[in-house]
Amino acid sequence: MGLTGEVITYSYIIRVVREIQDVMEERGFTTLIDISRIFDLSTHLVSNIVDKHMCNVHKDSDTIYTDVYLDEFRAKIRGYCTALIGPVTVNVASAKLNLAERIFIFLLEGLIISGEVMGSLVASEGVFVPSCFVHAQDTYITKFFEQNGYVEWGFIKRLGISDPRLYLQTKFKEASHSEGIRISESQFVQIKAAIDEAISDSSWVDLNFYLPVSVNQKDSGAMMAPFIKGGDACFLQNAMYVVNNEFKKHCICKLELINMNKAEEEARSID
């Protein structure tokens, strides 16, 4: 093998390979820079020697690892990640195991693909999320939604889900999705029944008893509008009350009569 100004024999290359193997057998890893310093060779040449003459090794940038060394860390990563009950960042986990982040990710991805580690690696955030955490999170959210009939985005964010809109739209497809909140179909069934009863009984219903406090006037009006399409009722007080039109007219007539009587009393008292 020739270099600028010198020639390296094949026997010398074999000697370099054996030296590398001895170091690798003892430590499990080494770096191209260390080898190049020992033999006074360029890192490029050392890299070529490793690629062409060494097997059962894994090269990551400047570092070379033996398969045995990586197998040991696979076992450590498997044990570490299996014991997790919550998300962990890659930098924290790799530092805990004293392993380079790139190698940690490489080994973890392989373990996830093989099914030896249950979870997902969120590359964009550098976080590993164990499946048990996701399952517990989903179960908790589902129970909350079923018991309360709604769930707010803020609640979802506090549980560590960065995109509550996407999560809730995917998980609760039948729910009503408005800005900042999801309301269950069963909750709407109750609301519709209350509105229908108020309309049929010529009465009114207070939606504050059925809707979460975070629902604003705009959202309330938009969500409730389909229930009063027939024109037999209307909204009052920022769409927080649904009032039967006949009941409303009756109340207005009574108020007008009261006002008229009051005015007559005032007039008589002046006279």
From TrEMBL:
All copies of the E3 UFM1-protein ligase 1-like N-terminal domain together span 4-167
- Which Pfam families does this chain map to? E3_UFM1_ligase (PF09743), WHD_UFL1_5th (PF25870)
- A GO CC term assigned to this protein in UniProt: endoplasmic reticulum membrane
InterPro entries attached here? Answer: Ufl1 (IPR018611), Ufl1_N (IPR056579)
Query: One of this protein's GO BP terms?
Result: response to endoplasmic reticulum stress
Q: In the record, what terms sit under GO molecular function?
A: UFM1 ligase activity
- Read off the PANTHER family from this record: E3 UFM1-PROTEIN LIGASE 1 (PTHR31057:SF0)
- What is the protein name given in its UniProt record? E3 UFM1-protein ligase 1-like N-terminal domain-containing protein
Organism the protein comes from: Protopolystoma xenopodis
